[in-house]
Specification:
One of its GO terms (cellular component) is nucleus. By secondary structure, this protein is of the alpha/beta class. Helices cover 40% and strands 11% of the residues. It has three domains: 42 residues; 155 residues, Rossmann fold (3-Layer(aba) Sandwich), CATH 3.40.50.11980; 29 residues, no CATH class. The longest helix is centred in the middle third of the chain and has 14 residues.
Length: 309
């Protein structure tokens, strides 16, 4: 039991020393949820986050070498800049597999399609959560297709089994949705699922905001994993900005003025005028004076004289 729990939390990225301390304090039979809460309370972070916080060691270059090999880079340059810009991905394996199997078969091929889609985009942190009892031989009431894919993803440290056990012939299953939301919240990543997790939204207000803003829904079209181009609606960010930590803002598109050169609003006009190269913020009277080569000061003095009795 100790080794299974140790392996499970090591896959999540926690250090063995922290896990052993928590197991010693809580006992070997402590639930995984309690162990995870204690690790968070201790301030223990996954190794992926700690490695990002630490500066990368400087590499020494041989003196007098004029040509740089492709493997060497400038000092202080991070090799995974593009990968760090992408958000971590946490996939609800049960939801994706059942969706690909038309809610009748647990299709492991659907999980592979989703993982491959994010791999092609360059995401390095991808985790898939599946209940442990899916590792058992399939039954008639719960058929599984392509079960060998789960073993391959587990060897690649992508798939994580949420714990379950049998007590007096009855299966006790831990709530895998809680693992999914917790890991995605800690990693500041994206949840891939068509589930809304309403019970977890009511449980924690921070999780509610996170689920509303970081839930990526999807569809399968002819064995093709297809997330929407606008995950948060028509007025929300694009898919590339949604999956990126540094979104690229689109350039502002100015709408041309419907009145064109006949516009009399001057600097108050909010539309774009192509005849004004720098969008001159001048009134119509000032523009006319500039065209007739009359100084602005003289024009203002004439206005004062006309106004004076």
């Amino acid at each position: 039991v100790h080794q299974s729990k140790l392996d499970f939390f090591c896959k999540l990225g926690y250090a063995k020393q922290d896990i052993c301390k928590v197991l010693e304090s809580l006992g070997q039979e402590a639930l995984e949820d309690d162990v995870l809460k204690e690790l968070i309370r201790m301030g223990s972070k996954p190794q992926a986050l700690e490695s990002r916080a630490q500066p990368s060691p400087l590499k020494l270059v041989a003196r007098g070498s004029c040509s740089t090999s492709p493997g060497l880079k400038w000092l202080g340059e991070d090799e995974s800049d593009s990968a760090d810009d992408l958000r971590p991905i946490v996939i609800d394996g049960s939801n994706v597999a059942m969706s690909h199997g038309n809610k009748e078969v647990f299709s492991c091929w659907g999980i592979q399609l989703a993982v491959d889609w994010f791999r092609e985009r360059g995401h390095t942190y991808i985790k898939v959560f599946v209940p442990l009892w899916r590792k058992e031989p399939p039954r008639q009431d719960s058929p599984i297709a392509d079960q060998h894919i789960l073993e391959e993803l587990e060897k690649q440290s992508i798939l994580v089994y949420t714990p379950s056990r049998k007590v007096k012939g009855k299966r006790v299953v831990c709530y895998d949705d809680r693992y999914i939301v917790k890991v995605a919240y800690e990693k500041d990543g994206v949840i891939v699922s068509n589930d809304h997790y309403r019970d977890l939204q009511n449980e924690n207000p921070e999780w509610k905001w996170f689920i509303e803003q970081r839930l990526l829904m999807y569809s399968f079209v002819s064995n093709r994993f297809m997330p929407p181009d606008d995950p948060l609606g028509r007025h929300g960010p694009t898919l590339s900005n949604f999956l990126s930590k540094k979104p690229v803002l689109p350039e502002p598109k100015w709408q041309p003025c419907p009145y064109g050169k006949k516009c009399t609003y001057g600097n108050k006009c909010k539309f774009y005028h192509p005849e004004r190269p720098h969008q001159a913020q001048l009134s119509v009277a000032d523009e006319l004076r500039a065209k007739t080569k009359v100084p602005l000061d003289l024009g203002k003095e004439e206005e004062k004289r006309n106004r004076s009795p």
